[in-house]
Amino acid sequence: MTVDTLINWFATFGDFPVLSFILAVVISGIPLFLVMALNAMIAVYVERKVSAFMMDRIGPMGQGPGLHAGKWGLLQTAADAIKLLVKEDTVPESSDKFLFKMAPFIIFIGAFLGLAAVPFSSTLQVVDFNVGVFYIIAVGSISIIGIVMAGWASNNKWSLYGAMRSAAQIISYEIPAGLSIIVPIMMAGTLNIQELIQYQNGTVWGFLPNWIIFNNPFSFIAFFTFFISAIAETNRTPFDIPEAESELVAGWMTEYSGFRWAVFFLSEYANMLVVSGLAVAGFLGGWQSPIPGLFNTGAWGLFWFMGKVSLLIFVMMWFRWTFPRLRVDQLMHVCWKVLIPITMFNIFGVGIWKLIFG
Amino acid sequence: MSRYFLNIYETLSTLLTGMRITWTHMINIKRDNVTLQYPEERWPRPERNIGFEHENYNIIRSRLHVDIDDCIGCLKCERACPVDCIKIDTIKAPVRGEDIPNMKHTGETTNGTKKAMVVSRFTIDMSECCYCNLCAYPCPEECIFMVGGPNSSKHPIDYEFSEFDRTDLIYQFAKKLNSEQKDSLQTPIPEAKA
Amino acid sequence: MTLVEIKSAINSQFPGVIIDNEELGDHQLELNGDKWLDIATFMKEDPILSFDQLECITGYDGGEEAALQTRYNFHSMEHRHKIEIIISHDREEPRVASIEKLWRIGDWFERETYDMFGIIYEGHRDLRRILCPDDWEGWPLRKNYKGQELYHGIVVPKIKEEDGWE
Amino acid sequence: MGVVKGDQMILNIGPQHPSTHGVLRLEVMTDGEIVSQIRPHIGYLHRCFEKHSENVTYEQVIPFTDRCDYLASMNSNFGYVVAMEELMEIKVPERVDYIRVVMGELNRIASHLLALGVYGLDIGAFTPFLYMLRDRERILDMFEYTCGARLLYNYMWVGGVSHDLPKDFEKICIDFLDYFEPQIKEYNNLLSFNKIFVERTADVGVIPADVAVSYGVTGPNLRASGVKWDVRKDEPYSVYDKFEFDVPTGTGKFGTLGDCYDRYWVRMLEIKESIRILRQALGSIPSGDVHQSIPKKIRPPKGSIYRRTESPRGDLGYYIVSDGTPVPFRVKMRSPAFTALSCLDEVSRGWMISDVIAILGSLDIVLGEIDR
């Protein structure tokens, strides 16, 4: 159900290209936004529960008379969302008001555009670019502009620190992320996400699904380097130095409240979905079933894709509630001195592998 | 060079150890959970028979309560209080150890001590109280105590006393005397200074 | 080392600085404050005394008639002996040399004593109030201290109210 | 603070900040992330402990000492009563001494647990904090069982303790120790040996031994710098001379001697030593009356005393001057966290902002005690 199919379908009713284009974009954009909101709500709830369980707590619970937060606290995130929406939207007196108000939306746009190219199943993808992988990586960088805007416009030293750290971090980690995703691109020989997933059909080594991660040792390592870089790009622990709450209070989000802050939150979780989606599409076979040849059709694709994405998001949460946080220079150390050499080596290795084994 | 790979190995192994621990805690949450759903569940409060013979010494640090019928107005608790949250006024009783029915004043405590004073005011400001329990020890009649625990027979426990107004936390224990009743007694004795 | 030995060591180096005071305890030593910096330097650097740890500086106000005092508790990590040095100051203008450069903790301890007693440590590089606000008036721990009534328009609560309980 | 040059910036950390451990304000001169100077401003929590003490009787001072070091109230009480008993020349029954040691060591464990947990939080690890708080809670439960209060105990009195131990206290305490000892291994695996944690703390904020002594840094912070100084061992008070325990010192386990990791690790080792003391003490508490030597009226003779004890944060000294009345003439508290904080400026110059937080956390300050 891409935009293209919608446009083609509208074309059967007559020739009105501009209107049909707008209609198609809106019709596919609204579900995308719902996906984003739903993802944030579910992810926040799961994150709360996961963190609580890891810490020997039980997290939000709604018991007793009345409807506190639903059974097992299921309505907690809904209540939180309502709270955030009705909260006062404070804008600091000495801030750059225009940029301050703009910043959340720029970040939102970055996440939203990235989501447009995520292949939820073989047909369920808003736009199927021929350079999809490249597009997601490129669009992901838009959020840096928003973050720097937010940090600068807040006129707060903490925000500025957070923004600068964030910019340095995201720009640096794009390099290992890009270098890692080159491995599947080299193997499949395409930048199109659907073709990339199609390439991972069948089996490898006799019994394993032919996912790129299992294809050869280099791509196995490449998955982990990509995943680590992806975590860093989404500013999550152990790379959450831009919003390190024990150092920078809340980093670039310090001055934000209410709805604008909720937008940041939404984008953060959407970004997690996007990078996990890219990792799944590039390395874990996308919407392909883990049992080659079985349950591989129709809605199963969505199920497998979301299942794998959820697994990766869970691992991100798992990291967050287990690890301490790195320091700025250590973060750069990991990026430039560990990840980039490894990814370079990987590209080389995959090239050799392709040369020898086809 | 080997240092470089050793570092990577150490990092991965220690991180995985940590992840294993949080994972075990997560899947064993039913066993490990320590949260209590507060309004529905509560911690058991320690109630114990303390190890020396003074059985009525209190072990709960909760709201202060005064059995005003037992109070002889000796001001010991007032003097012991480090933050001066107890305030007592007394008026000399006409006859030592006799009931004054119209003021609901009893002449004798439950221990049999004859009272020489009518307590006209006994207020405790629980918002100032620091729960040090110093007032409970010197009381000769054991009439000031923190509620609950071994004293639960005298007064039920009250951990969760909260009010909307600060002044509501000033507890009045003395029996209300109007000005005529006060005048009918002797002139108030100025309170002793600590 | 016992107090007697420490006493004789100081006395041989700086004759006449030790003030005899019968009331003092067996670990206390009252000194004349004029050469205090030299004595302190000697106490720290002399290998036999070697007081490398300044445990505590206590300000002391004996009341209207008596003097203000600074009491230093020294301890030697090396020899494990200790001593308390008492230096009395003029009430009107309490001044004594600062030992902040010898023992770095003297910095904050002297600031605290200055804050509470108004004793001025000459040569201290940064003698400001430390616990009270910078613009607080009076020296709180002096016995004749009267608290200010208003501080930036805020009523300062009395330390112990006379009869204001209601 | 001096002149702010063009590429420098003054950053105010606190008084409201997640990791200043209270209301501490740090004026930090930074050049980018690098810190060039720190000026701590304290006094936000000043509650006039010393002035108050001159207006209440000797026994009424004890609740105020609770509130100074509110994370180790038992040890605060302990220091005061030890000083008072020395001033009044009271010999307390042995049972009282044993009970005090048990309580003091339990509170040391509780305090160190909080220190370590919050340190993890400063570095960014959330989970160990809650594990440690979970175990600290059990210690607080034992305190509640003993004296009715969970945080501010007013338990130790001059000449005795307020309540005798419950009859089954020893069993409960041994049960707790049996449960608790294996937990230390888990903390270590989860936090102490975690490579990220080690990288963040090792070699950071080194306090050399001479600097530490000059700044009057005491307790675990001093021992982490390699100076073997423990008041319990070197100037034994109460019955500490009867127990066998080691004084753990820093070894530069992963980095340099006296770095943040050493300070963290010494606390971890001290918990183990406290468990050792507890096991010895619990086995041999003599019987007796805990109230017999409490004086009816506390009127110390004229004189003064300076006595220090080992609180979880270091040498907690009380300077008490008596003029023979029931009201103290002067009470001065030499607080260990006060001296530890004073060296922050020198130690953290040249490090990054994140490291300042790490160093501050490793000093384990309690603002209630610093400001008094």
Number of domains of chain A: 1
CATH class of the largest domain in chain B: Alpha Beta
What is the CATH architecture descriptor of the largest domain in chain B?
A: 2-Layer Sandwich
Helix content of chain B: 10-25%
3D structure, described in words:
The complex is a heterotetramer of chains A (358), B (194), C (166) and D (372). Chain A is an all-alpha fold and 358 residues long. In chain A, 66% of the residues lie in helices and 1% in strands. Chain A has one domain. A two-stranded antiparallel ribbon of chain A has the order 1-2. The mean pLDDT of chain A is 83. Chain B has 194 residues and is of the alpha+beta class. The N and C termini of chain B lie far apart (76 Å). Helix content of chain B is 21%, strand content 13%. Chain B is built from 4 helices and 5 strands; from the N terminus they run ααβαββββα. About 4% of the residues of chain B have low confidence. Chain B has 2 domains: 31 residues; 121 residues, Alpha-Beta Plaits (2-Layer Sandwich). Chain B is elongated. Chain C has one domain: Beta Polymerase, domain 2 (2-Layer Sandwich), CATH 3.30.460. Chain C is 20% helix and 25% strand. In chain C, the strands form 3 sheets. In chain C, strands 1-2-5-4-3 form a 5-stranded mixed beta sheet, covered by helices on one side. In chain C, strands 6-7 form a two-stranded parallel sheet. The C terminus of chain C is likely disordered. Chain D is 49% helix and 13% strand. Chains B and D meet through helix 1 of B and helix 2, helix 5, helix 6 and helix 7 of D.
